[in-house]
Known about the structure:
The chain is an alpha/beta fold. The protein has a domain at 1-77 and 186-248: Rossmann fold, CATH 3.40.50.300. It is built from ten helices and ten strands. The strands form two sheets. A six-stranded mixed β-sheet has the order 6-7-8-3-9-10, with helices on both faces. The longest helix is centred in the last third of the chain and has 16 residues, at 167-182. Keywords: ATP-binding, Nucleotide-binding, Plasmid, Transport. This is Branched-chain amino acid ABC transporter, ATP-binding component (LivG-like).
Amino acid sequence: MLAVDGVSKRFGGLMAVDSATLALEPGGIIGLIGPNGAGKTTLFSMISGFIAPTDGRIRFEGTDITSEEPHRRAERGIGRTFQIVQPFAGLTVCENIAVGAYLRHAKRADATAKAREVARRVGLGPELDRPAGGLTVAGRKRLELARALATEPKLLLLDEVLAGLNPSEIRDIIPVIRGIRDEGVTILMIEHVMQAVMNLCERVYVLAQGRMIAEGPPAAVCADARVIEAYLGHGAAARLKAEGAAHG
């Protein structure tokens, strides 16, 4: 469905993403993890068309989309959420979600109906007619998810949709994400909440200092010495191994 081939992004002297490659088959939930500043959101921005890559190609369903505008990619079926949630505070929750629905539904009544349906799917049904500016952090995260879902994506890019939520809020939203996948939407998610990554993702890619350093099932990736070093620093894998042997 999605093929990212040797994609790089340079900002002046900084190589934010360095020859990153990943491939997604339809129908799964795939994680993209890595330390802060690894280049994960930059990679999302290149996939969704908000930033042009310095090098490399991006293909979606077999078509080269490397130079396409974001709205063209949205029309093809690539939706995304943003790490910093910025709802239209003066509009209602329903009106916010309808902004996304207008991509496929030109008539206001149709866009509003779609918005209401999506709101119920993500647990915002009771909030529909309230101002978006009054939502809690958890509510705003659900609204961001709903706005992207209203574009009826085939591929949904979730950028830290669980960040800032408490454990019970995370527990509540995990089934929502799983339900989206079950309805046929492929999900690529950036996430720091490792409990959620282990519960949700079939496969995980690890980005560190702009480079893909590991890929595979979550449990195997989390035990990879390169991944432990990327998160915890040089020598951490050996220290953990020694501690494990001592406790054993």
